[in-house]
């Protein structure tokens, strides 16, 4: 839930910046970011923005706001094992995660690692269609910037194997991404970031 971070930054600015014009600019950027993060019409977001514009906003109030907001956020629709199997039909012995243990309200995509085969799987929706990408994930974890969420994180080299064009050539592309996809989701600012990443892969 990236909005939490935007608001936390904003509160920090309210407490540390005294220049009114600077605050106005920071505020405008924050509102813009919130709108980019949650697209669509949600009255809860308007309430949130209204609160965010109040420079007396403090962390306690913001936390209460988030508790309300979270229950209203549309979760990642839980797919059935069969649907997941269909997305990754080429993978033998696919390990499907237990979606009950994942907070799908926090997820823009669902990603998991198969430690045995050193593969990473990611599910996402595109025009309400469940899609997925998979690839090798290196066992070496380093500190670096993630190609999906753009945060400094524990990342590993992810090499996706994708089919390009009708000729069926396979291409390999390597990117450093968060090993922990749950964390990646929490650090993700907007759906656009995920789409940009997918564009470079597909
Ligand atoms: Zn990430």
UniProtKB/TrEMBL annotation:
Elongation factor G-binding protein C-terminal treble-clef zinc-finger domain segment(s): 91-190
Gene3D superfamilies for the chain: 1.20.1280.250
A Pfam family matched in the record: EF-G-binding_N
Domain of life assignment: Bacteria
InterPro entries, sorted: EF-G-binding_C, EF-G-binding_N, EF-G_N_sf
Sequence ranges assigned to domain Elongation factor G-binding protein N-terminal in this UniProt record: 2-76
Protein name: Fibronectin-binding protein
